[in-house]
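Workshop exercise sheet. Pairs work together: one partner reads the sequence aloud, the other fills in the structure field after running the prediction. Swap roles for the next sheet.
Pair: D.N. / O.F.
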Amino acid sequence: MPRATLMRRPTGRGLLRRRLLHGCCHVPDATVAARATAEARPELWEGKAPREHCREHAFEFDIAPTRFGRGVLAEAGATAAAMGLSRVAVVTDKVVRAQPFFETALAGLREAGLDPVVYDEVIVEPTDESFLAAARWASDVRPDGWVSIGGGSSIDTAKAANLFSSHPPPAGMDDFLHYVNAPVGNAAAVPGPLKPHIACPTTAGTGSEGTGYAICDIASLGVKTALANRALKPTMALVDPLTTHHLPHSVVAASGMDVVMHAAESFTARPFSHRPLASLGAPRPLNQGQNPWSDIGCRETLRYAPSQWEALLHVSLSPICTSHISSGSPADSLRVRWTTRPTSRRARRCTGRRHSRGPLSTMRGPRCRTAAHTRYRAA
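Structure field:
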């Protein structure tokens, strides 16, 4: 049998390994014959043929503006005031509300002359009922802006409450399926702009602060679905790595696993060029597929994450790195953050030549064999 007939398209680990080693190509990653066909007929990729016969050849960057850095959560008040807000709904859960960084954010809102009203009834894995409960609360409180502080559940709840309180469905607030994705819901268009929303994530891996998705369970139908619209995308995201220092070790480890799964999923997704070409001037969909831009973050995450598992999972070590990936945006936008905390003088003064100086290092050369050297002090 000819050797060519024995070759198969790599899948699973083989596909992941190939893309890690050789990068990606926005031409579909099928076979050499497919690439040759694409090169022989460039009109299929350059839009020269009738559009209904063309494949997609472009992708979009469409993520929320993001301010990243230690201590930026304290800027929530100044940021909201700059947006012209006066009465803001602060959405969180009871666990996050008890953390010291929440009081820091609340104090910043008050110092900026704002009137923060706290909603702390967010539940893990939100449902249609919890979304509507927050929306009814917002209809009574009537805020002119939103600040969400917490994980993906808090951010998604703020998005949904903002949507349903700003533009209630024509049939009434109970018509939750009006805005839900098809085929579960009606996927109705959002009729107008929403109120400004400042998203402040405290965990890694969710990416909700950068996308137009709000995920929930619909118990009556037994499905998990989403509200998906660009209008749901937060106005600004404040990503403060210091919030991760107050999280339980198990939460940090689970967030790290979430980061890796999102990166692997995005890295091995069907390329954006497999889709039919969008109509002239139309925005690309929220889920565009694997593309060269998102591959940059995915590749780096998958290369470095394995070296961090010991530091994340070892009970005697403080959490040293938290990766935050905003996935689900048109280009599967990725923002990786690494926060580190040395715990010994030896870790701070060791300068072993074979120890990598990068923030993701866990190398232990012959001149440094301490577990503490898996920590790198960020500048």
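Discussion prompt: Residues 345-379 form one domain. What would you look at next?
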